[in-house]
Task: structure prediction
Amino acid sequence: MFGSKSCIVLIALVVTSGCATTGSPKLLPPPGTQLEVTQELSIGGGARLFMQRGEVRSRRDISVMDPHCQFISNRPRSEFSEPLVIRPGIFTVENSYRRRDYTWAAELEFARIGSNRNLSTIMELSSDTQQDIDRLTCLRWGTGVDSGFLTIEEMRSAMGGLVNINLPE
Result:
């Protein structure tokens, strides 16, 4: 039987071991990471450009259980009817963090399917030439227990050769 001191030590070990991977370069691109867009990327309209398996895809063609990434633009709503174009160039990651959010299909929680959470890695971006692109989010649906947050290798795979992730030395 555990005493109260043993329980406290055990809880502390679990909590600190869970935090130890937060800054891992395998999981979270650190500030200073450069995202190199290798070719012009374009989608019909809106504020998001989705990529999966090395292809630009429309939202409806994304397999949400599999890794995918999306550039997010801060352009005005009045421009949403125009194509969203991301030109070749370098974006710098200013900040990155992970977030677990409920998806738009929250009713799955009641069905006990357990896959109604976005496991997102959000990268806040800067660019000298494309200021309207302010984030890259890479994610999949999952419970966090069986699937987990994306690794950098999974992000690279989702974007294929469209975007290179260059970690700082």
About this structure: DSSP finds three helices and ten strands in the chain. Helices lie at 4-20, 107-111, 152-159. Residues 4-20 form the longest helix (17 residues).
